[in-house]
C-alpha cells in the first residue's frame, strides 16, 4: 500500500502489527501531516492542481508553505512506488496525524484486536528550521497536542534523528517515550552522550547492528530497548530475529509476521 496513508495503516492493523510507524511534518497552517518528506515527492503523486511533479524541483512544493487543504488535494498512490513494484495502486492523500490516530483506534475496536502502539518520527534538521518545519520546541508541542488529544500518549514513542527534538520532548513531556534514531557510523554511546540522557529506545539502521553489538549495548544500557530499521528481506529478518531486540521496523510486516508465526 502507499506509504504513510490510511489504506496502509489499516492494512497493517488487519495483518496484526503491534505498532504503526509513521513520519510527520507540519503544514503552513500548523497542522501535523503524515508524510515522509516535507515536500510533495514526485515518486508518490501529484501537485494540488493534479499535475505531475518535476523530480528536480519537488522541494519547491514545500509542505511547510502549503495549507493542509492544498496538501490534501495532492493525490498519492496512483502508481506503485519505484522501490516497491508490487505495491497496490490506491489513490489517496496525505492524512493528518489526528485522522490516522482516530481511524486506527476505531479499527482496533472493530477488528477486536489489542490497541496498537504508535511510533511517530519527527522529520527535523537544523538546516530545515523555519524553512521546512518549525524549530524543535514548537514542532514537539504540535505533535504532543495531537497524541494527548487522542489519549494515546502512553502507547506512543516519539522518534527522531535530531537530538534537539528529543531534548525538547524531554523538557516538555518528561515521561514521554523517546527513540533516538541513527544511520551514521557514530556509536550509540557517543550519540547518547550528545543527547544528554538515555532514551527509552535506540533505533539504528539494522546494518549498524550485530548480535555481538546487541549484547554489548544490553550490558551497557540494561533498560534500553532496541528497534532496528528497516529490515525487509526474509534472510535479514531471520537473522535480526535471532538478536535480543525489542522489535523490528519493516516495510513488509506480512513477511515478519509469517516468519514469527503470527500472520493473521
Can you offer a commentary on this structure?
This protein is α/β, with parallel strands linked by helices and 264 residues long. The protein folds into 2 domains: 1-178, TIM Barrel, CATH 3.20.20.190; 183-264, TIM Barrel. The chain contains 9 helices and 7 strands. It has helices at residues 6-15, 68-72, 97-111, 136-149, 163-172, 188-195, 211-220, 234-240, 253-259; strands spanning 19-26, 32-34, 117-122, 156-160, 177-182, 201-204, 225-226. Strands 2-1-3-4-5-6-7 form a 7-stranded mixed sheet. A hairpin with a 5-residue loop joins strand 1 and strand 2 (32-34). Helix 1 packs parallel to helix 3 (97-111) and helix 4 packs across helix 5. The longest helix has 15 residues, at 97-111. It is globular. The model has no long low-confidence stretch (mean pLDDT 97). Residues 1-260 form the GP-PDE domain. Pfam families: GDPD. It comes from Hymenobacter ginsengisoli. This is Glycerophosphodiester phosphodiesterase family protein.
Amino acid at each position: 500500500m502507499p506509504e504513510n496513508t490510511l489504506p496502509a495503516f489499516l492494512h497493517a492493523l488487519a495483518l496484526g502489527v503491534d505498532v504503526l510507524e509513521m513520519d510527520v511534518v507540519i503544514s503552513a497552517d500548523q497542522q501535523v501531516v503524515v508524510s515522509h518528506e516535507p515536500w510533495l515527492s514526485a515518486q508518490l503523486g501529484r501537485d494540488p492542481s493534479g499535475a505531475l511533479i518535476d523530480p528536480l524541483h519537488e522541494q519547491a512544493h514545500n509542505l511547510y508553505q502549503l495549507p493542509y487543504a492544498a496538501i490534501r488535494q495532492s493525490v498519492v498512490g496512483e502508481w506503485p512506488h519505484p522501490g516497491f513494484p508490487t505495491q497496490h495502486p490506491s489513490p489517496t492523500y496525505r492524512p493528518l496525524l489526528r485522522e490516522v490516530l482516530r481511524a486506527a483506534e476505531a479499527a482496533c475496536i472493530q477488528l477486536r484486536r489489542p490497541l496498537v502502539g504508535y511510533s511517530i518520527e519527527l522529520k527535523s534538521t537544523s538546516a530545515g528550521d523555519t524553512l521546512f518545519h518549525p524549530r524543535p520546541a514548537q514542532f514537539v508541542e504540535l505533535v504532543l497536542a495531537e497524541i494527548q488529544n487522542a489519549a494515546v500518549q502512553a502507547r506512543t514513542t516519539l522518534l527522531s534523528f535530531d537530538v534537539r527534538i528529543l531534548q525538547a520532548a524531554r523538557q516538555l513531556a518528561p515521561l514521554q517515550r523517546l527513540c533516538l534514531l541513527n544511520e551514521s557510523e557514530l556509536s550509540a554511546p557517543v550519540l547518547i552522550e550528545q543527547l544528554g540522557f538515555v532514551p527509552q529506545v535506540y533505533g539504528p539502521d539494522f546494518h549498524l547492528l550485530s548480535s555481538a553489538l546487541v549484547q554489548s549495548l544490553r550490558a551497557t544500557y540494561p533498560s534500553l530497548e532496541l528497534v532496528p530499521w528497516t529490515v525487509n528481506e526474509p534472510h535479514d529478518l531471520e537473522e535480526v530475529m535471532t538478536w535480543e531486540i525489542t522489535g523490528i521496523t519493516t516495510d513488509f510486516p506480512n513477511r515478519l509476521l509469517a516468519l514469527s508465526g503470527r500472520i493473521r
